[in-house]
Amino acid sequence: MSSTSVSSATGSSSTTSSTTTDAFDKLDTQAFLKLLVTEMSNQDPLQPMDSSEIVDQISQIRSIQASTQLSTTLEAVLLGQNLATASSLLGRTITGLTKDSKNVTGVVDRVSVADGVATLHIGDSTVSLKNVSAIVSEEIS
């Protein structure tokens, strides 16, 4: 946590900004296992770690792995839903905002995906799926 104080001749003011980096966010399963093995190999032989503590740590590893797998699955489902929604807009006239916040209206002629984000192409303009504000008309026959 960092803190900055500023004072002046007329009075004083202080600004506090907190930057918290959680070391556990950067800890993956392999690093956790390495720490656990190191901890166990360096423990006091006369007072070894309680077996319930070891079981707790192993269950934490499994919980972390399950959370990671769930997050990955949910991201894949979201991408699939975005692709289905974006492809359903092909041939339709939409209104949306481009990356540079310009309003564009036109027929969606293609869809692309980059970094898990579905992008709609209207001529030379591109609109992110999340920036579509209205569907103006149905598909062109």
Q: Could you explain how this protein is built, in words?
A:
The chain has 141 residues and is an alpha+beta fold. The protein has a single domain, classed as SH3 type barrels. It is built from 2 helices and 8 strands. The strands form 3 sheets. A 3-stranded antiparallel beta sheet has the order 4-3-8, with no helix packed on it. A 3-stranded antiparallel beta sheet has the order 5-6-7. It has a two-stranded antiparallel ribbon with strand order 1-2. Strand 1 and strand 2 (12-17) form a beta hairpin. The longest helix is centred in the middle third of the chain and has 38 residues, at 51-88. The model is unreliable at 1-21 (pLDDT under 50).
Can you lay out the helices and strands and say which pair or pack?
Layout: E1 2-7, E2 12-17, H1 29-41, H2 51-88, E3 93-97, E4 103-107, E5 110-114, E6 117-122, E7 125-128, E8 132-137
Antiparallel strand pairs: 1-2, 3-4, 3-8, 5-6, 6-7
Helix pairs in contact: 1-2
Evaluate the radius of gyration: 26 Å
What's the order of the H and E elements?
EEHHEEEEEE
Please identify, by name, the CATH architecture.
Roll
Helix count, per DSSP?
A: 2
- Strand line-up in the sheet with most strands: 4-3-8
Biggest sheet architecture: 3 strands, antiparallel
| CATH top level label | Mainly Beta
Strand content: 25-35%
Measured distance between first and last alpha carbons = 61 Å
The name CATH uses for the topology is: SH3 type barrels
Unreliable spans: 1-21
Label the overall shape: rod-shaped
Count of discrete domains: 1
Helix/sheet category: alpha+beta
Average pLDDT figure: 77
Helix content: 25-40%
Count of DSSP strands: 8
